[in-house]
Amino acid sequence: MKAVFIVFNQAHSERIEYILDYLQIRGYSWWSDVKGRGSVSGEPRMGTHTWPEMNSAVLCIIPSEKVDDLLEKVKKLDQINQEVGVRAFVWEITQAL
């Protein structure tokens, strides 16, 4: 099993939800109003007058065989408009209750 953490501009919220539904990823945790800045070229998302946009984030624990499909969909979403921004990170899950 793998943990996939996806951080995205809130403009992508419906698209991320659609991807999860399309891939039949039912279980996830969702955080709204996530502040931050991309490590390469992303603009800050701080919810302030200067940087008004915000991110959201989702964490899902999925079977390893679904990871490539999920990352492929996230990459395609990012390629549509790279300035809006979406990133995904994957961790190995060694135990779960």
Description of the molecule:
The protein has helices at residues 13-22, 64-80, and strands at residues 2-9, 29-34, 55-62, 86-92. The protein is globular and about 40 Å long. Strands 2-3-1-4 form a four-stranded antiparallel β-sheet, covered by helices on one side. It contains two helices and four strands. Helix 1 (13-22) packs antiparallel against helix 2 (64-80). 19% of the residues are buried. The chain has one domain (2-53, 62-85). It starts with a strand and ends in a 5-residue tail after the last strand. With 97 residues, the protein is an alpha+beta fold.
Number of helical elements: 2
Lateral strand order in the biggest sheet: 2-3-1-4
Radius of gyration: 14 Å
Number of strands: 4
Mean pLDDT: 94
Number of domains: 1
Helix content: 25-40%
Secondary-structure element series: EHEEHE
Task: Profile the largest sheet.
Answer: 4 strands, antiparallel
Beta percentage is 25-35%
Low-confidence stretches: none
- Tell me, briefly, the overall form: globular
- State the end-to-end CA separation: 12 Å
Structural class comes to alpha+beta
